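Structure tokens please, single chain.
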Amino acid sequence: MPGRIDYYDDPDAPAANSMVPSVNVVIENEAGEILLIERSDNGNWALPGGAIDLGESMSQAGVRETKEETGIDCEILDVLGIYTDPKHIILYTSNNEARQEFSILLRARATGGEPTPSSESRQVHWVARDQLADLQMHRSMRQRITQYLSPGSTLYFD
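Here you go.
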């Protein structure tokens, strides 16, 4: 059984028992490719990110999580969206924590490092836009990437 199961509008989803602020970071290189990881806990492709720890800002969390999961150093540029959909429940099977989604989407630029997998990422790649549709990805992550790629998009919140 995977360590993380994402549910969306699913009657079989467990009731949420926590809400933890987290970040996802979108970084595009000069070739127009998006930095993605293949998650170790469920095999889905995703933007780097994770929980905001006590004592750190969302920008600090974004920089830390990106480095930990990808090996890439980055600078946070701005906020693209805030996602709090109660229909999205994330179950962590190791402790039965069922989180309601609360994620802040940040845009960043790479400042150094090389794509390097970690304990949280099986693979790390710069992915061309025309290859995104072929990757196994939860709908919530695809929504974030689509929002980022939409011309003229404004701050998303829900």
